[in-house]
Amino acid sequence: MNTEKDKLSLQVAHMYYQLEISQQKIADELNISRPTVSRLLKHAKDKGYVQIKVADPFSDVTKLSSLLKEKYDLRDVRVVYVPDTSYQVIGDYIGQAAADYLGEIIVDGDIVGISWGTTMHKIAQRLKPKQVKGVEVVQLKGGISYSNVNTHADEILHLFARAFQTVGRPLPLPVIFDNPEVKRMVEQDRHIQRIITLGRQANVAVFTVGTVRDDALVFRLGYLNDTEKKRLKQRAVGDICSRYYDQSGNIADKTLDSRTIGIDLEELRRKDKAVLVAGGTHKTAAIDAALRGKNANILITDHETADRLVNLQ
């Protein structure tokens, strides 16, 4: 490169693209016409001095969806581009995506099993009414808490049921009992047994994952003592429907699991549509283990978490 035109086109390109000076101002400063500035910019691109790359986040999410579907052998994946990294905003975006997805897939006669928690609440708030017949909505785990922390269990059930023109079936029990014997006795009640059986029959399950951090919802509900929390932090990476699992997606603490009421992981693995809705990079390990254990076959997540999952060894 030694021509005056090449040198001038580079100077103009630096001023326009790097210093963000307008074409008219460049023309004034260099004492040339504005059309000449435009021609010099085109010359710089034609010569390869300027290379413009368009970062299309929507193209990226399509690629990430495909990679995740292949990596974890999933039926479907929806990756959502989220313009903010805050957990609140991520929840809003994936909640909307999940609500839209459920509006697409729920049909007459479906039995929809649901969990509870912050992400589930965001989904429920965004569901649009759909004219379907014979749909059932049932809680997959106990929804009663004696803590001041709100699980939104009742409202989530109500909103799901309203969206799909039905009456919700609650599981009116604490999710974790103090004693496994008491839990087993309660399960024998014919009314409770009917709800648990309906949850097992559900062909669509919608749930999220929890972590084993101190701020995890179940940790704050008063079900677990400090010793149990410490043990879970050592053995588990996350929970689905309060079933705590290890890095392979298998039950991490059988003693605690024997006190937990509601659907178990083996039953989730048999669902036609097991929809995991979870986002935030702090949940990467929990999501990865859940998918490795085949505890879900459909994933809805945000693009940054999807990228972490794709690159996780």
Structure notes:
Keywords: DNA-binding, Transcription, Transcription regulation. Residues 15-52 form the HTH marR-type domain. It holds the Pfam family MarR_2. Belongs to the SorC transcriptional regulatory family. It comes from Vagococcus acidifermentans. This protein is of the alpha/beta class and 313 residues long. It has two domains: 3-47, Orthogonal Bundle (Arc Repressor Mutant, subunit A); 60-311, Rossmann fold. The protein is 48% helix and 11% strand. The protein has 14 helices and nine strands. It has helices spanning 4-18, 23-30, 34-47, 57-72, 87-105, 118-126, 153-163, 180-187, 190-201, 226-235, 254-257, 265-269, 284-292, 303-311, and strands at residues 76-80, 111-114, 136-139, 168-169, 204-207, 238-240, 243-245, 273-277, 298-302. It has a seven-stranded parallel sheet with strand order 1-9-8-5-2-3-4, with helices on both faces. α13 crosses α14 (303-311). The radius of gyration is 26 Å and the shape is elongated. It starts with a helix and ends with a helix. The mean pLDDT is 93.
Q: How would you state the average pLDDT, rounded?
A: 93
**Domain unit count:** 2
* Helix and strand sequence: HHHHEHEHEHEHHEHEEHHEHEH
CATH topology assignment of the largest domain: Rossmann fold
Structural category is alpha/beta
Number of DSSP-assigned strands: 9
**The top level CATH class name of the largest domain:** Alpha Beta
**Second-tier CATH architecture of the largest domain:** 3-Layer(aba) Sandwich
- Count of DSSP-assigned helices: 14
Strand content: 5-15%
Strand order of the largest sheet: 1-9-8-5-2-3-4
Distance from N terminus to C terminus (CA atoms, Å) equals 46 Å
What is the percent of helical residues?
40-55%
The best one-word shape is elongated
**Which residues sit in consecutive blocks of at least 5 with pLDDT less than 50?**
none
Largest sheet: 7 strands, parallel
Radius of gyration: 26 Å
